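Every protein is a chain of amino acids, and every chain bends into a shape of its own. Below is the pair of lines this work produces for a single protein:
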Amino acid sequence: MLILGRREGDSIIIDGGIRIVVVSCDRGGVRIGIDAPSTVKILRGEIADQVRTENQRAVVPPSADWMATLGAPSPRPAPES
C-alpha cells in the first residue's frame, strides 16, 4: 500500500486517467473527489464488501427447514440405481 501525505487541493494521478483530489480535510475526516473515465467502476469499500457477501450468500443452497417455512415441498431423495 502506498501512503501519501496530501493537503487540501492536492491531487494524485493514477494510470488510466484517474485523478484523486483532496477536497477538504478536518477532524471529521477527509473528503476526496475522484475524476475517472466513465468506463471505470468506483465503489466505496464497504459497498464492495456487502456485494461480495451477498453474492456468496446467494450461491449457498437453502436448507430444507428454511424451505419448509416457505411452504415448499421437501426435496425428494434421488432414486437408487
User: Anything to note?
Assistant: The mean pLDDT is 85.
